[in-house]
Amino acid sequence: MNKSLLFLLVHVSLLAISTARPNPRNLASFGPWIDQNVYDPKVQYMASYAISEYDKNTGSHLELIEVVSASTFYVSFYPRGQNIWHLVLKAKDCSQPSTPPSIYQSQVYENFNPPQFGGNYLSFGFLMN
C-alpha cells in the first residue's frame, strides 16, 4: 500500500476515534453565528455594558441610541465556555454634542467558568466606529 495513503488512513481513523470518545474533557465545540433579537433585555444589557466599558477606557461619554444588530458565537473548551457577542450600535458622543450619532461595532466576551476558574464574568473586547 502506498505510504501516503496509509498515512492518510491512520490519521482519519485517529480523528474518528478521538471525536467518538464520550469523555467531555476531550470535547471542544464551536457554534455558528446566531442572530439575536435586538430588543431582548440581555442584548440591551450587553450593549450598555459595551458602551460603559468604552467610556471607562477612553474617558468619552457615549449615549446608546439603539442596537442595530446583535449576534453571538459560542465557543466551548471543557469545562469553560464563552459567548462572543458582536454588536452593532448606534450611539451619540455627548462630549461633542454637535456631531450626529455614529455606528459602532463592539465585541463583548461572556465567559462561563466553574467557580474554581473564577466563575462567570464579562470582558470587553473593543468598540470602534
From TrEMBL:
It comes from the Eukaryota. Residues 36-111 form the Cystatin domain. It comes from Rhynchospora pubera. The keyword Signal applies. This is Cysteine proteinase inhibitor. Belongs to the cystatin family. Phytocystatin subfamily. Pfam families: SQAPI. The keyword Iron-sulfur does not apply. Transmembrane segments: none annotated. Residues 1-20 form the signal peptide. GO terms for molecular function: cysteine-type endopeptidase inhibitor activity. The lineage of its organism: Eukaryota, Viridiplantae, Streptophyta, Embryophyta, Tracheophyta. Keywords: Protease inhibitor, Signal, Thiol protease inhibitor.
